[in-house]
Structure formats: C-alpha cells, structure tokens
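Supplementary notes for students who missed Thursday's class. We covered one full example, reproduced here. Read the sequence, then the structure, then the short commentary at the end.
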Amino acid sequence: MKPNFSIARRAPLVIPRSLVSRLMRLYDYPHPLHPKQVIRGYDRLHAIRTARMCAAVATALGYGTERVRQYQIACLLHDLGRAGLDRKLFGKIWSWAKERGIPTRPREWRARHTAT
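Structure (token representation):
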C-alpha cells in the first residue's frame, strides 16, 4: 500500500503559527566560524509535515484537540538534536545503520517487522 502524503499537507496545525515559528527557530544555530551569522536549520519542513501527519492520525484515532496539540509540539521538536549536525555526518550515520542492517526508512521497518 502506497502512503498518502497529501493527508499530511491537508491536516491542520492545531497550535498557533506564532508558536510554530518560535519552535522552528530552535533548529537554527550560529555559524561556527562567523558567530554573528545564523545557519537556518534544514529540518523545519520535515518537522511541520510530521506534525501535520500526526494530527491526521491522532484525530482519526479519536484523540482530543489538547492531546493532538501536545503531539504536534513533540513532532515539531523531535529532530532538534540534529540541529547543527553537518549533513555529511548525518549521511554517514545513515550509512553506518544500513551497513549493520538497521532499518532507516518506514518501508524497511515494515519489511522486517511485518506485525507493526
């Protein structure tokens, strides 16, 4: 079954845009060689898509607005630990996982863990 990513684009953000903006700024970090320059985090759109997808799933499962709001905040922050991580280094992490047979994509997880 092919995933329907258009659901994530249509699902609402139940938290105020101002909060989304403040949380997304946490992904930005100072340039290591030019401290007055800020490097914009590259995971922002992914975090927002994840939050929208979560809202669609949580709403379909019958969770209330307050719980969906909490889930969305968690989704917006779920990759914060990667902020400032060099993309090349992150690619090495993915390669390391693949070399050891660790699933890194949903389809790989489903193939290995068919009951989930």
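Commentary. Strands lie at 29-30, 38-39. The first strand starts at residue 29 and ends at 30. If anything here is unclear, bring it to office hours.
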